[in-house]
Amino acid sequence: MKRSEFRHKVQNTSLGFVAGYVDTLGFVALFGLFTGHVTGNFVLIGAEMAHPQGGPLLLKFLAFPAFILGVAMAKILIAALLKRGHHALWYAYILQLTLLIAFMIVGYMATPPGPEPTIMTALAGVVGAMAMGTHSGTGRLLFSHLAPTSAMTGNVTQLIIDSIDVLRGTAEPKIRERCFKFLWPVVAFGIGAIGAAFAYQFAGFGAMMLPIVTLIYLMYLERGVMKKVYKVKEKKSDKLRRAQ
Q: Quick check: bond before 112 cis, omega within 30?
C-alpha cells in the first residue's frame, strides 16, 4: 500500500470517528442537541412543537446558523489558502481543532447542567455546531475522493448496495474497493458514537480530549505533504528570482 493510500484511509476512518464521537457527546451533554447531524435537530424541533414538553427549542434553532457559519469559515479559509498555494488541509485541521478545544472549555464551564439550558450551554452548542460545520465543509472541499464522514445515511445505503453485489459474486474490483471505502468510516462513526456516550459519563467534557488528540495525529500525518508543498513554492520563487 502506498503511503498516500494509507494516509487517506487513516484520514477517512479517523474523521468518521471524530464526527460520531462529537455528535453523540453533544447530544448526551446538551439536552439532545445534534452538533453534527443538524438536520436531526429539525426532527426534534418539530416533535417538540407538536407536543410541547418545555424542551430547549432555542438551543436547537441556534445550532443551524452556527453550523452554516462553520461551513462558511472552512470555505473562505480553504479558498484563500489554495489561491496562495498553501497546504489548505493543515490549516483546516487547525481551525477545527481550535473550535473543538473551545467546545470542550465552554462545555466544561456549562457543567453541571441544570434542568434548563443556560447561556453557557447555548454557547457550547453554538461552538460545537461551528466545529462540526468546519468538519463537514472541509470534507466536501478537500476530501471529495473519500467517503463522507459527517453523515452516514448515504454511506450505509451505498455500503448495502455494494455488499449485495459482493455477496452475489457479481462485484467488479472497483465495487469491492468502494465497499471497503465506505465500510470503515461507518464502523468508526459507530465506535465513536458509542465511545462518546460512555466517555462522557466518566469524564464529562474532558472526554473531548480524544477527538482533539485524533486531530493532532492527523495533522502530524500531513508533515510530509507540508514539506513537499513548501519545497515546490521555494523552487518557484527561485525561478522567478533568476528570471528577474
A: yes
Domains and CATH numbers, the chain: 3-243 (1.20.1250)
| Among the listed residues 178, 211, 175, 209, the one whose alpha carbon sits nearest the alpha carbon of residue 193 | 211
Cβ contact 150:160 at 8 Å? no
Q: What is the largest CA-CA distance in the chain?
A: 73
Give dist(CA 32, CA 30) in Å, integer. Answer: 6
- Is this prediction's pTM over 0.70? yes
Give every CB contact of residue 102 below 8 A, 6+ residues apart in sequence.
127, 131
Question: Going residue by residue through the chain (244 aa), what tens digit of pLDDT does each one get?
Answer: 566 788 889 999 999 999 999 999 999 999 888 998 888 888 888 877 877 765 677 888 899 999 999 999 999 999 999 998 888 999 999 999 999 999 999 999 988 777 778 899 999 999 999 999 999 999 999 998 889 898 888 899 999 999 999 888 888 888 888 898 899 999 999 999 999 999 999 999 999 999 999 999 999 988 877 777 666 666 666 666 666 6
Distance between CA atoms of 120 and 127, rounded to whole angstroms? 10
